[in-house]
Amino acid sequence: MIGLVNRRWGVWALGAVAAATAGAALNVGIAAAHQGIPPGQTPATAWGFITNPVPSLLLMGAVYLYVNGLNNWPNPTHRVNAWQKACFFAGILVLFAALQSPIEPLAEHYFSVHQVQHLMVRMVGPLLILLGAPLTPMLRGMPRWARQNIVRPLVRSPQARWAYVKVTNPVFTTVTFLALLFVWQAPGPHDLAVHNDWVHELMHGTMLTSGFLFWWIVIDPKPHRSRLHYGLRVLYLGLIVLPNTLLGAGITFQEELIYSAYQELPRPWEGFSHLSDQRFGGLILWVPGDMMSILSAGIVMYMWYQREMEANPNPPMPQPVADVDGDDAIEPDQPDR
Predict the structure, then answer these.
(1) Nearest CA to 106 among 239, 277, 222, 254?
(2) Would strands 329-330 and 321-322 be described as parallel, antiparallel, or unpaired?
(3) d(C-alpha 99, C-alpha 124), whole Å
(4) Cβ neighbours of residue 84 under 8 Å, at least 6 residues apart?
(5) Among candidates 250, 262, 244, which has minimal Cα distance to 179?
(6) Three-state SS at 322
(7) Quick check: is 110 in a domain?
(8) 194, 207, 258, 315 - which has most CB atoms within 10 Å?
(9) What are residue 322's DSSP bridge partners?
(10) Alpha carbon 273 to chain centroid distance?
């Protein structure tokens, strides 16, 4: 019976992938590049999944694997608590809002909305999902044939292990995370992404991937163990603050428009000038981006404390020390009399 269910699940998964591929292909003709909010719709009704359902299908697949894995894990070696589950589903909702809600078409009208979207895709969504410890539940949620024929050989492959070590190297993840931010904020690539749907999807895909790689070695979702000590993780988070500040401040205090793509579409709210929109977008990139790093450093320090308490729940109390003359014992912190 279980094998039959798994086979049916496999057929359903292949069908979903085929549907997603077909949807992506059809979307080229349905949704013209750089259209923003379609005519006849308002910012409240322009939902992205109407023209491009692929992100919704992928997110639904992730939720299915996570829930199915939790249900098929009768004797967990490490429990996923309610707080972690809430983080995972919150991360899924953040990515859905960023990629499928009216935020997506509005991002082609306003640079500031685009920066909110990037913050959700690069930082908030991946962080929350990894806080949900999704590795074991999603692996257990796969059909058995996928675990045995795809995951297991891949994990045992020396080439795959070599590639994993390289792409999770802290230097590589930091450089990739920052380099992609600067590349996609440069006027040329950014305007091209607003004009062209394929480049726009490439921008979101690379940002999302770099976000997961960056947070992967910070959050340490069980049973994964990061090679970075907790103290180094705090430093790792601090390294991205200065470049992010310089980029955000540079855009915020710019006196001229540096992104021309946003001037080509009519805006739902015309009272917000293009220069004000650009400055507000730079401020969003600057302040919330830095605050995310600082907040995450606080989370890492709490995890560090929690891990130390698990390893040594009853630290030894300081022992009294006798004085040199053999008189009564005195506490080490007691002042001389």
Answers:
(1) 277
(2) antiparallel
(3) 13
(4) 131, 132, 133
(5) 244
(6) strand
(7) yes
(8) 194
(9) 329
(10) 31
Contact 49, 56 (CB under 8 A): yes
CA neighbor of 185 nearest in space, from 129, 135, 117, 128: 117
Q: Which amino acid is at 265?
A: L
Cβ 5 vs Cβ 144: under 8 Å: no
> Angle at the Cα of 90 (from 85 to 94), degrees rounded to 5?
155
What pLDDT is stored for residue 40 in this prediction? 64
Residue 5: both structure tokens together: 């269910």
The predicted structure's pLDDT at residue 322: 53
In a domain, 331, yes or no: no
Question: Other CB atoms closer than 10 Å to residue 328's CB: what's the count?
Answer: 7
Look up the pTM and report it: 0.80
Residue 178: partners with Cβ closer than 8 Å, 6 or more residues away: 240, 243, 244
Q: Strands (DSSP E) along the chain, which ranges?
A: 321-322, 329-330
Where in the sequence is the domain holding 273, given as residue range(s)?
47-312
The count of structural domains within the chain is: 1
Nearest-angstrom CA–CA distance, 56 and 227: 33
> Chunked in runs of 10, what are the mean pLDDT values of the chain (337 residues)?
40 39 36 59 73 89 96 84 95 96 91 96 95 92 92 92 92 95 96 93 96 90 77 89 95 94 83 91 95 89 80 66 51 49
Lookup result for tokens 């809430």: 86
Maximal CA-CA distance, the chain = 93
Reduced to 3 states (helix: H, G, I; strand: E, B; else coil), residue 108 is: coil
> C-alpha angle 93/95/96, rounded to 5°?
60
Q: Of 217, 32, 26, which is closest to residue 108 (Cα–Cα)?
A: 32
Which residues make Cβ contacts (< 8 Å) with residue 97, sequence separation at least 6? 103, 120
Domain contains 325:
no
